[in-house]
Amino acid sequence: RCDSALWGSVFLRRGICCSRAFARFHKRQRGSNMQPNLNFSRLGENYLFSEVRARTRAFCEAHPGVRVTDLGVGDVTLPLAAPVVRALRAASAEMGRRETFRGYGPAEGYAFLREALAARYARLGARISPEDIFVSDGAKSDLSAILALFSPQNTVLVTSPVYPVYVDTNLVCGRRVQTLAATRENGFLPLPGPDTQADIVYLCSPGNPTGAAYSMDGLAAWVRWALGHGALLVFDAAYEAFIQDKALPRSIYQVEGARECAIEIGSFSKSAGFTGLRCGWAVVPQALRAGGVPLRGLYARWRAVSTNGVAYPVQRAAAAALSCEGRAAVGKNLQVYRKNAQVLAAALEQAGVWYCGGRNSPYLWLEAPRGMGSWALFEHLLHTARISGTPGAGFGAEGEGYFRLSAFGDADAKKRAAARLCLSLGMLANG
Ligand code: PLP
Q: Which atom of ligand 1 approaches the CA of 138 most closely?
């Protein structure tokens, strides 16, 4: 049994794509018909961030005393806002008193948070009922949980480069995943064409890794296509709080007809610094159907089976982040990240390097100068500027030749790193 577990993990770590060998091996070892989910053998190696860490560590070991600035970080770095901490404390204190203690909460989330989220949608001009909102421990959990609603026969379409979770969660369920190229030519915001065919399409706006954000017209084109083809859109709004341009949509439900064809996934992670607290939500509107079956009821059933909900103090903290005072406090943190993005953008402009993102997103997506590969640029920046970032090739083949920088992190360190970045990229771009 031990050997079997060990070899199973070796198969997975190496991303072995030979599921028959994997199956044969297990059958021989166990003499039973019990088998793991063989779709795991479809996953490639999850090596992007471990490879970035390993190369950075090797550089630091070879250059003792040299400090590398991390411009690749995809995690928030500022502490929780004061109103959020106060709500957490108060709710924890409630849990410590007999009269106010709470046990299991509703699987779909407490009414106070679902109502606060519905009010947030109303402020955006979108009509969403609290009953259509399901509170979760973060967007990643919802991205996995919603897959229980659909047939493994459905074909999935993702734009590429892309947040790899959309691909891997579907591959494990046995679905076919196709890609639609997001390129510099289409502004990294591909639209459906006459030949676009899929059952489920993932859209992320503002996008990770490119930072590009769909316009109202762009999202409306996808909604029209989905309604015309009986397809479903999964709209990931994890970075909507970074949108500054008033004309850009922050929710797909700002587009007419989206409630009949879209699920939206939201998160407090990047908007309110909840990456360590964990809270997000999914909207599955009542009007949404697949093959005539209303999906909201299925999702309510699935949540009741698969989760006992999110901690009460965390939900109180999330509701505090949505309050008037909370929004103002959380906004101050976002402003720090926005300033960091401006500093990085100015460095890229001065170096004469093409980039997008940064204005409505914490990510800047730059083109490696002179046709350089993503990993070659990674090594160049590490050695000449003591900067570590994220090679675009890690987000899919279409990301090759690009590089992601992140605005999360300390403001002073960012300023110092931006000066080195400008020098190093400028040298490359201008020969
Ligand atoms: N969606 C995108 C596009 C992300 O980049 C991330 C995290 O980096 C998530 C979802 C996951 O968010 P959460 O922390 O809410 O699970």
A: 15
Index of the ligand 1 atom closest to the CA of residue 275: 14
Residue 17 has pLDDT above 90, yes or no: no
Task: Work out the end-to-end distance of the chain between its first and last CA atoms, rounded to an integer number of angstroms.
Answer: 58
Task: Report the 3 state secondary structure along 157-174.
Answer: EEEECCCCHHHHHHHHCC
Burial pattern 392-430, b for ≥16 Cβ within 10 A else e, equals bbbbbebbbbbbbbbbbbeeeebeebbebbbebbbebbe
Q: How far apart, in whole angstroms, are the C-alpha atoms of residue 331 and residue 100?
A: 31
Query: Are the C-beta atoms of 344 and 358 separated by less than 8 Å?
Result: yes
Give 162 Cα–ligand 1 centroid separation in angstroms.
12
Ligand 1 neighbours, Cβ below 6 Å, are 74, 138-140, 163, 204, 208, 236, 238, 267, 269, 275, 280
- Interhelix angle 2-13/19-30, rounded to 10 degrees, is 170
Q: Which residue carries 């920046």 as its tokens?
A: 381
What average pLDDT does the segment 208-235 reach? Answer: 98
Among protein residues, the one with the nearest Cα to ligand 1's atom 3 is 208
pLDDT score recorded for residue 25 = 60
